From TrEMBL:
Organism field: Branchiostoma floridae
Name this polypeptide is given: Monoglyceride lipase-like
Serine aminopeptidase S33 domain segment(s): 44-281
Pfam families, per the entry: Hydrolase_4 (PF12146)
Domain of life of the organism encoding this protein: Eukaryota
Gene name of the encoded protein: LOC118415554
Length: 306
């Protein structure tokens, strides 16, 4: 198994050396073990589900605050670390096909829907996770009661995809698929220096270079979203900072303008950077409130309809 840190009688371990038997996990369709995280409401039975789909190089446990806020509204929140991320198996920042991310999300979503029938399922995707969530919604039109996107990767920024680097990545992807073609510039993550430092110091975040093959896959996924936008039919909340240098706000605007769905909203936050939930207070709180309000309004309208 790729990315496996060794197996024994207790089975496979995470890249950090912990047995998956001791952790919540799922095994995906290619046999890789993915670390899972579940935040359950304490005061009531779940009245909705929400799946968090994290971005490149990061991991799902960074969304604790959002999950906790949603728990207060009776939402059971769940997530996993993508292949090659956090505590999941796989080679860091490398993927043979972007569809692997999408299929893992659909598998986990189906598992949770089966365990909690009769309540609505929402999805929240950040950055690359926004692209994954969008493609999952395009593939399964009736799966999600709503799609919330934070800085979705739909139009690449000049900083992350210059013509030369795209050309070089395509050349290298077939010859040296794991060649490093660039890193996440941490200064673009947030305007809050403490949050940037926390990002830089987080051992579960991948701080190495992004791979040529991954770069080709993410650019292909963005192209696919733009080409298939007419198939996006889920209720949509698109959120973006107008100073985002890692994924352009024009991507959120494109999806909002072209998705053929009546229930859609867009919020472009003036001055905000890429990680909207990690901006300085009270800005991050504003974004969290916007998300929770939008989701709870749709839970309530769903319960009225049923």
């Amino acid at each position: 198994m790729s990315g496996d840190s060794g197996t024994s009688v207790d089975g496979p371990k995470t890249p950090q050396g912990v047995f998956y038997t001791k952790l919540p996990h799922l095994v995906n369709s290619t046999g890789q073990y993915l670390f899972c995280k579940y935040w359950e409401p304490q005061e009531q039975e779940p009245r909705a589900l929400l799946m968090i789909v994290h971005g490149v190089a990061e991991h799902c446990q960074r969304y604790e605050e959002l999950a906790t806020e949603l728990n207060k509204e009776g939402v059971l929140v769940f997530a996993h670390d993508h292949v090659g991320h956090g505590q999941s198996q796989g080679h860091p920042a490398d993927i043979k096909s972007f569809d692997e991310y999408v299929q893992d999300v659909l598998q986990h979503a189906d598992k949770m829907r089966a365990a909690h029938p009769g309540i609505p399922l929402f999805v929240f995707g950040h950055s690359m996770g926004g692209a994954i969530a969008t493609l999952a919604a395009m593939e399964r039109h009736t799966l999600f009661a709503g799609v919330v996107l934070s800085a979705p990767a739909i139009i690449p920024s000049p900083e992350t995809a210059t013509t030369f680097r795209v050309f070089a990545a395509k050349m290298l992807a077939s010859i040296v698929p794991r060649f490093e073609v660039g890193k996440v510039d941490t200064s673009f993550v947030s305007r809050d220096p403490a949050k940037v430092k926390a990002y830089e110091d987080d051992p579960l975040i991948y701080h190495g270079g992004l791979r040529a093959r991954w770069a080709v896959q993410i650019l292909g996924a963005m192209d696919q979203i733009r080409q298939r936008v007419s198939t996006f039919q889920s209720p949509l909340l698109a959120l973006h900072g107008d100073q985002d240098k890692l994924s352009l706000p024009e991507g959120s605007q494109f999806l909002y303008d072209n998705a053929p769905v009546t229930d859609k909203q867009i919020k472009i936050y003036p001055g905000f950077y890429h990680e909207l939930l990690n901006e300085p207070q009270p800005d991050a709180e504003t974004v969290r409130t916007d998300i929770v309000t939008w989701v709870t309004e749709r839970i309530e309208s769903e319960s009225v309809q049923h």
